[in-house]
Specification:
four-stranded antiparallel beta sheet; mainly beta; about 0% helix; single chain
Length: about 120
């Protein structure tokens, strides 16, 4: 069974930065593509960034150029560096597999709130 624990969220003003961390346990070595998702109030959960084990990355248009997903190797946490944060980035952020569907139940996520 695979589980993920997200951390690093918080309160930040527009233009600020946060770094999220996702720690996985269980059979995570076989996951070829990991992703960060977010769900804003009243909206569906969306994939905002993904990274394959080969290092290729993909981003939603709304975060391209501001967010960076990274991971040293398949055993280490997955990070999401978020810069130039905007009000519309306010959401609960989750990590999970980003190819062939999610691999585990959604965790608690980590709340990111951008406020002025």
């Amino acid at each position: 069974q695979v589980t993920f624990v997200e951390s690093g969220g918080g309160l930040v003003q527009p233009g600020g930065s946060l770094r999220l961390s996702c720690a996985g346990s269980g059979s995570i070595l076989r996951i070829s593509v990991m992703g960060w998702y977010r769900q804003a109030p009243g909206k569906q959960r969306e994939l905002v960034a993904s990274r394959s084990n080969t290092g290729s990355t993909d981003y939603a248009d709304s975060v391209k150029g501001r967010f960076t997903i990274s991971r040293e190797n398949a055993k280490n946490p997955v990070y999401l560096q978020m810069n130039s944060l905007k009000f519309e980035d306010t959401a609960v952020y989750y990590c999970n597999r980003a190819k062939f569907g999610v691999i585990s139940d959604w965790g608690q996520g980590t709340q990111v709130t951008v406020f002025s």
